[in-house]
Design brief:
Blueprint lengths: L8 E3 L2 E3 L6 E6 L4 E7 L3 H19 L3 H17 L1 H12 L3 H7 L1 H14 L7 E4 L2 E9 L2 E5 L5 H14 L3 E5 L6 H12 L7 E3 L4 H9 L3 E7 L2 H13 L3 E5 L5 E4 L5 H13 L11 E5 L3 H13 L19 H16 L3 E4 L14 E4 L6 H4 L6 E7 L2 H9 L6 E5 L3 H10 L4 E4 L18 E2 L6 H5 L1 E8 L9
Helix pairs in contact: 2-5, 2-7, 3-4, 4-5, 5-6, 6-7, 10-11
The protein binds NADPH dihydro-nicotinamide-adenine-dinucleotide phosphate.
Length: about 475
């Protein structure tokens, strides 16, 4: 077994096994071999995880923020030191090429730990003068937070949730996707080695049912999910029963608008990054690429030339630029969408094929002449499938870009400064890029509008989603009572 972890779960500062739980086989998507076996959490495991989180939280919350920050900063340093090992494990688990995981996964996780370590000691309340009396506010932790992750960025998602939660004095119980259970266990190990007290970051394995049980646990105060809209609906509804706080980072079908005055090479680079990175399994991908008609043919020509040159192959080879999709099921889904695009009359510019197995590979695919009503232009595909649509003028493209139930992200390529800001101000999206795409520095809040989610991760904004305000009124004079 190439990547067998010490045990399935991490609870109360240690690896924990319970073979009573259903077996989960972890498959390397590039060769379909089983690389590890873990067990889903039984109710007894879940109980231990939540109970230990609850036990540990009060003491952690009572510490000075600088002390909490010190632990997070140490964990960030270790994560960086182990970047290669973490990246190799992430590549085995997800199939994403090492070329990407070496720079995007543990790296972003370390940044999250550093950023929230820096922020923690700066969070203060306010003083509110009331004549003689006054009031002040305290920003307090929520308690035990549940984190539930998707399979595309396991390390990053765990760190983006754990860092602000722990910085603000909360505990977290995290359930990774059953498809990618491995790296989160290493994050837990590193946090513990950095001095995080036992119980504050627990990892439990399992599929949706384990996530559901966690969300419904009375001791859980907040739920942060990264996943699809259908799962988001279920988790949001379950959390609502207990009036729990939620952060929902869900799916998208984001528009990327290319005006004819844009730099052609930059726009093509942006469109490729926004469709082919991680084999297209990125929530913010700009999968509806609107290109102004005068530029369309030149754009498609460069795009096709550069797309066919993408090196698919063994993701453990650092020269490989695109790996497989996560699973046989995802592969089937994406191939079905490609068939659907063809049948609907979209023009296949490049790709559309699945290289012979083993491995869940799909060639980078570009459709042109896509119209707004086609299924491939409306639904999230989550694979390397780009839809190119054309447009004539600004008002038209904004209306069409916004005509989606999603609102995660959007991008604009133009060299007209005022147009760039004007267009962005009218786009219905939580995260926008001007002359760049898919960059998510930790300093910048990240999240969606409409069906793409509620709440924000990263930036100062995340602090509000892992804490609550207590108001304290202080009477300075005699108490006036009418009786
Ligand atoms: P899913 O929605 O299938 O799963 C997300 C997580 O929720 C998994 O851990 C899953 O468990 C768990 N889950 C499923 N059902 C329930 C339930 N009823 N209660 C609690 N937990 C449950 O998403 P994918 O893993 O397929 O990820 C792809 C999706 O994630 C895409 O839509 C993508 O856009 C979105 N995403 C959003 C991001 C964002 O930040 N906005 C970033 C990355 C991805 P299991 O899978 O183990 O069954």
């Amino acid at each position: 077994m190439r990547a067998q972890p010490s045990a399935s779960h991490f609870i109360d500062g240690d690896f924990v096994e319970d073979t009573q739980g259903e077996v989960i086989e972890v498959i390397h998507p590039a060769d379909e071999t089983v690389i590890a076996r873990v067990h889903a959490a039984t109710p007894a495991i879940l109980e231990r995880a939540v109970a230990s989180a609850q036990r540990a939280q009060a003491d952690w919350a009572a510490r000075r923020p600088v002390e909490r920050a010190r632990v997070l900063a140490r964990a960030a340093a270790t994560l960086r030191e182990r970047n290669r090992a973490m990246s190799e494990l992430e590549t085995l688990d997800t199939g994403k090429p090492l070329q990407e995981t070496l720079v995007a996964d543990a790296e972003s996780g370390a940044e999250a730990l550093e950023f929230f370590a820096g922020l923690a000691p700066t969070v203060t309340g306010e003083t509110i003068p009331l004549g003689g009396d006054f009031a002040y506010t305290l920003r307090e932790p929520l308690g035990v937070c549940a984190g539930i992750g998707a399979w595309n960025y396991p390390t990053q998602i765990a760190c983006w949730k754990a860092a602000p939660a722990l910085a603000m004095g909360n505990a977290m119980v995290f359930k990774p996707s059953e498809l990618t259970p491995l790296c989160t266990l290493e994050v837990a190990r590193i946090l513990t080695e950095a001095g995080l007290p036992a119980g504050l970051f627990n990892v439990v394995q399992g599929a949706g049912a384990v996530g559901d049980a966690l969300v419904r646990d009375e001791r859980v105060a907040k739920v942060s999910l990264t996943g699809s809209v259908p799962t988001g609906r279920k988790v949001y509804a379950a959390a609502a029963e207990g009036i729990r706080h939620v952060t929902m980072e869900l799916g998208g079908k984001s528009p990327l608008i290319v005006f004819d005055d844009a730099s052609l090479e930059d726009a093509v680079s942006g469109a490729m990054l926004g469709n082919f990175y991680s084999a297209g399994q990125v929530c913010t991908n700009g999968t509806r690429v609107f290109v102004q008609r005068a530029l369309r043919e030149r754009f498609l020509e460069r795009l096709a030339a550069r797309s066919v040159a993408i090196r698919l192959g063994d993701p453990m080879d650092e020269a490989t630029q695109m790996g497989p999709l996560i699973s046989a099921r995802q592969h089937e889904t994406v191939m079905r969408y490609i068939e659907d695009g063809r049948a609907a009359g979209a023009r296949l510019v490049t790709g559309g094929t699945a290289p012979d197995g083993p491995g869940y590979f799909v060639a980078p695919t570009v459709f042109a002449d896509v119209s707004d009503d086609m299924t491939i232009a409306r639904e999230e595909i989550f694979g390397p499938v780009m839809c190119v649509l054309d447009f004539e003028d600004e008002d038209e493209v904004i209306a069409r870009a916004n005509a989606s139930e999603f609102g995660l992200a959007a991008g604009v390529f133009t060299n007209d400064l005022t147009r760039a800001h004007r267009v962005v101000s009218r786009l219905q999206a939580g995260t926008c890029w001007i002359n760049s795409y898919n960059l998510t520095p930790l300093e910048m809040p990240f999240g969606g509008v409409k069906l793409s989610g509620v709440g924000r991760e990263n930036g100062r904004a995340a602090i509000e989603h892992y804490s609550q305000v207590k108001s304290v009124h202080v009477g300075m004079g005699p108490v006036e009572a009418p009786y």
